[in-house]
Specification:
five-stranded antiparallel beta sheet, 47% helix, 700 residues, alpha/beta
């Protein structure tokens, strides 16, 4: 027992232990991730120093927030507080209620309904414990304060250790610390938790984490014994407590997550960060204001530049009104329309590198390899983003990616100018089919708000499902449902446009037994890829027997790559996807070997149908684009890339722009002197996309 006069250091020892254990555990986390990605790192002295010293800085920033409850307990816990506990408790609860109402507003909309209730529930629980213990004797209170602190410390320690495992798996999947993807996944806890349970031996993992936590706790628990008996004066406690509490305040207002970006190697920059701090930064910055975080040109100059680029690629287009802040124009084709059906298949996480056509020797895409010789096959197509919602966005809107959240997940995303809107005006049935529950990632609400009929796994009867995991039914079941739906569509006499989103090529990589020669028990990505290939082949073979097949165009494209991680912010190899257009009765096979962009898929489909239409699309018809006008857009949620002439313009916050020469084989890049023409094109496209969407100009 400590002397009643106490000492300040003893009173705040839990805070010091928190910082010490947190720094050590985060150091171990960083070391583990460094070893995992060792082959991709550039480990000069500068980079090593940056990884660990900048990393230590961010660890302290993160721990300053975690330490807040420990500081408050050490500062405010005294016997006076426990006199008349019910009265003082009501005051405390009232103050907490005010705080919750204040912090409610900055929380992004999709979190708004969940977090205040979670906070309130935790506060009420802890407050109940406080009231229970408050009326006990002095010795009893001190004993339980110590025990309570140990329980609290054990829980935090468990979370620290568990985070090592979590960050390892996230890094393995995405090549990054926690980021915008982790924030998105927090909302869809059912799918995410289910995916974790189906992908990993979660019981053994938790048991291992508990064991490690217990061992660490046993080493330090005695150092938590005396803090409650140390009684320095309130003024002395206040001085230290307020100093410690000032740290997270300063971090919140003065520090951002960009200090870590000191190296040309993105893996090095990621290692220099702190995963949980990065999560918080992504949470609060889900909508990046382009005009605040990116370099800009005058809006009118951006409009003029984009119009110029559009006309260079399609000289027969004509803008309606030069005085209107819009790229709306007439896209004209000679001759009658071809009222063909269109089936757009977007494949989950399908990198070009999976295919034998691009050198893969595993024979996991036999059908798609053969289809590449029967289709118009684009062998240098690049995805715009790294998430399914980005793929769905561009395959419906043909718009460059806006920084922050995908349009699919944004407010005011209804009644937009989509391919569905264009074809519905021409009498088409428009549908979106998904093997999971379409509430995930806001897919169903988005497509419904834009005039599509949404058909998901709820349309299947239990006996029609051969297999399902947390993401949805097996692709073969979704394709079987699609064939039945297309038969119904054809019976109406109206042409149809349908987009099918596959799900099977996703962790946990499980699928029905007996379909391919890789057992689903192995839970290997190669098996999931081959199963998806099998399902697409089986679907097209069955479709070929249908009376509507001859009058149908099938477009097959990935939503994004399996991984976009690399040594640079935007490695081009992380965006290379296959694109097929298949209609044996209507199209001659050919290989298009110049660079094309996912943003151009929608206008190309409309061009194949020979449709003249009013367009607001930023994309253009690939099959009538003049030679030498190749360009593509690639992005993360904050990094915006513009590819042209084997050069890449990268925009990123805050107000940074650089030009690189990417290596299309390795994904690395070297910095170059800025080309003013490419610079203005890149800024203009992204700035105008932001301006038009947010001003409502992309409504139909």
């Amino acid at each position: 027992m400590v002397d009643n006069k106490g000492v300040l250091s003893e009173r705040f020892k839990p805070v010091a232990l928190l910082y010490l254990t947190g720094i050590v555990i985060n150091f171990i986390t960083r070391l583990v991730l460094l070893c995992v990605s060792f082959a991709d790192l550039s480990l000069g002295l500068k980079n090593i120093a940056g990884i660990f010293f900048i990393g230590l800085f961010y660890d302290i920033c993160f721990l300053s927030f975690v330490s807040i409850p420990f500081i408050l307990i050490a500062w405010l816990t005294n016997d006076l507080l426990f006199k008349n506990p019910w009265k003082k408790g009501m005051i405390v609860l009232f103050i907490i209620g005010i705080i919750l109402s204040v912090i409610r507003n900055p929380i992004p909309k999709e979190f708004d309904k969940k977090l205040p209730w979670v906070f309130t529930g935790l506060v009420v629980l802890l407050f109940g414990i406080y009231l229970l213990l408050a009326s006990k004797t002095d010795a009893y209170r001190h004993r339980w304060r110590t025990r309570g602190m140990k329980v609290f410390f054990f829980i935090v320690l468990f979370l620290f250790v568990f985070n090592i495992i979590s960050e390892y798996f996230f890094w393995d999947e995405f090549g990054s610390r926690y980021n915008f993807i982790a924030v998105d996944y927090l909302i869809y806890t059912n799918e995410v938790v289910g995916n974790i349970r189906e992908s990993y031996p979660i019981g053994w993992i938790i048991a291992g984490v508990l064991l490690v936590t217990l061992l660490i706790f046993l080493l330090i628990r005695k150092r938590l014994d005396g803090w409650a008996f140390a009684r320095p004066g309130f003024s002395r406690r206040s001085l230290l407590a307020l100093g410690l509490l000032a740290v997270p305040v300063l971090v919140y207002f003065l520090i951002n997550n960009r200090i870590k970006n000191f190296s040309d190697n993105d893996y090095v920059n990621q290692l220099a960060g702190n995963g949980v701090y990065e999560f918080g930064a992504a949470f609060w910055n889900n909508d990046l204001d382009f005009y605040r975080f990116y370099k800009t040109v005058p809006d009118r100059e951006a409009l003029t530049e984009v119009r110029k680029q559009l006309l260079e690629r399609s000289p027969t287009d004509s803008f309606f009104n030069n005085d209107t802040f819009s790229i709306e124009r007439m896209v004209s084709y000679p001759g009658p329309e071809k009222r063909m059906n269109v089936v757009l298949i977007s494949i989950e996480s399908f990198s070009a590198g999976f295919m034998g056509t691009f050198g893969n020797t595993q024979n996991i895409t036999p059908y798609l390899d053969s289809l590449s010789r029967q289709s118009i096959f684009f062998n240098k197509c690049y995805a715009t983003g790294t998430r399914t919602v980005r793929g769905l966005e561009v395959l419906s809107l043909a718009i460059p990616p806006i920084p922050g959240q995908s349009i699919v997940r944004r407010p005011n995303n209804d009644s937009l100018f989509t391919i569905g809107a264009v074809l519905r005006e021409r009498g088409y049935t428009t549908q979106f089919l998904y093997g999971g529950y379409s509430s995930f990632d806001n897919m169903g609400p988005y497509f419904s708000a834009n005039g599509y009929e949404v058909i998901d796994r709820s349309a299947l009867k239990p006996e029609e499902i051969h297999y399902a995991n947390i993401w949805g039914v097996a692709d073969e079941d979704m394709f079987t449902l699609a064939l039945k739906q297309f038969d119904k569509n054809a019976a109406t006499g109206k042409p149809f446009f349908a987009q099918i989103m596959t799900v099977s090529n996703h962790r946990p990589y499980t699928y029905p037994e007996g379909r391919i020669d890789i057992s689903p028990k192995l839970q290997k990505r190669e098996g999931a890829v081959k199963y998806t290939d099998y399902c697409i082949g089986n679907f097209l073979k069955q479709a070929a027997a249908k009376p509507w097949f001859a009058n149908t165009v099938f477009v097959i494209v990935a939503d994004h790559c399996a991984s976009a991680a690399g040594k640079t912010d935007l490695p081009v190899t992380g965006y290379h996807i296959p694109l097929f257009i298949y209609s044996p009765a209507n199209l001659q096979p050919q290989v298009v070997d110049h660079m094309v962009s996912q943003i151009d898929v929608v206008p190309t489909i409309l061009g194949l149908l020979n449709k003249s239409y009013r367009s607001k699309f930023f994309g253009q018809d690939l099959l009538r684009m003049p030679a030498g006008k190749d360009r593509a857009f690639i992005s993360t949620y904050s990094g915006l890339g513009y590819l042209r002439d084997s050069q890449l313009i990268v925009q990123k916050p805050p107000l940074k722009v650089e030009q690189q020469r990417p290596d299309f084989s390795s994904g690395t890049a070297t910095k170059m002197k800025m080309n003013d023409s490419l610079y203005r094109q890149a800024l203009s496209y992204y700035q105008l996309a932001e301006k038009i969407f947010k001003s409502g100009g992309y409504k139909k």
